[in-house]
Design brief:
Shape: globular
Number of strands: 11
Number of helices: 6
Largest sheet: 11 strands, mixed
Order of helices and strands: EEHEHEHHEEEHEHEEE
Bound molecules: NADP nicotinamide-adenine-dinucleotide phosphate
Strand order of the largest sheet: 2-1-10-11-9-3-8-4-5-6-7
Radius of gyration: 17 Å
Structural class: alpha/beta
Distance between the termini: 25 Å
Strand content: 25-35%
Length: about 240
């Protein structure tokens, strides 16, 4: 892998992430929030319905490396239905590495759901770990092996209030949001996103997959600054700051 910006030269995922300490940038009233997305060149969020085939193994390494630098990882219900997440830090060596950084041994998984229509048979709900769901539904979740905490909002989830809850009640200093596009649009519109990690895969997909990154209107254009740009085998890894 090479770094194109700043200071061009050879690098690696671990070298890039070594000094990355998002938990030190927590806001008083909410966590520091970074988004992570992978996109095809034609701006699609999926290949055959899921995001995994978009990026390379290096993209997977970047995602895994990022996850282990955040207190919590958040996704919307649409992403959970499509991607069926499992436990994020099951391996003992991952947990130890997190603890050495002063992070909880595994990230809290945060779900945002309107209807509580979730794939309850996904391994996230049976593998242990910690799950927190913000929902606008009054339905009761089924019994699960994984401990699931539910926070209810009226009408829809108020994301600003949810972020404040995470900071106050769970001491979440840094939150990585992995999508999807509907949730991202609302977080940007509410001014809650500090950084965007974007993998641009040298692939065209076409088809009718969801648009990558943003689905929904932003009231005004959000200007971003390019913090780094990395390249490997034609795949670009960009990091933008608000
Ligand atoms: N390429 C990538 O990096 C990437 C990343 C993530 C996802 N994806 C893909 O994107 C697709 C999913 O897109 P999406 O935009 O539908 O996903 P999403 O943003 O994860 O989920 C949308 C759903 O989240 C819930 N939600 C969002 N904001 C809410 C609020 N304020 N209050 C209550 N509920 C709220 C609603 O759930 P209910 O339906 O329960 O009401 C809504 O239908 C999948 O195909 C996935 O594979 C790709």
């Amino acid at each position: 892998m090479r770094r194109l910006l700043p200071d061009p030269g050879p690098t690696s995922v671990s070298e890039q992430l070594d000094g990355y300490r998002p938990w030190e940038q927590a806001h008083a009233e909410r966590p520091f929030l970074a988004m992570n997305f992978a996109t095809t060149l034609d701006g699609r969020a999926t290949i055959e319905g899921v995001s995994g085939p978009i990026g390379s193994e290096t993209d997977t390494a970047m995602l895994a490396g990022l996850r282990n630098r955040f207190d919590a990882v958040m996704i919307g219900a649409g992403t959970m239905r499509a991607e069926r997440y499992g436990r994020l830090a099951a391996k003992p060596e991952t947990r130890e590495r997190r603890e050495r950084l002063g992070l909880p041994s595994e990230p809290l998984t945060v779900l945002i759901s309107g209807r509580l229509d979730l794939p309850w048979d996904a391994s996230l709900f049976s593998d242990g770990g910690r799950v927190l769901i913000f929902t606008a539904s009054e339905a009761e979740p089924p019994e699960t092996e994984t401990r699931v905490e539910v926070v209810r909002h009226e009408g829809r989830v108020d994301l600003t209030a949810a972020m404040a809850h995470l900071r106050r009640e769970h001491d979440t200093r840094a939150l990585l949001c992995e999508g999807g596009p509907h949730l991202h649009a609302q977080l940007q519109a509410a001014g809650l996103v500090d950084e965007l990690f974007l993998t641009i895969a040298p692939k065209l997909n076409g088809g009718d997959g969801p648009p990558s990154l943003i689905e929904g209107e932003l009231e005004k254009v959000v200007d971003l600054e390019l913090a780094w740009l990395l390249e490997e085998s034609g795949e670009l890894f960009a990091r933008y700051r608000r």
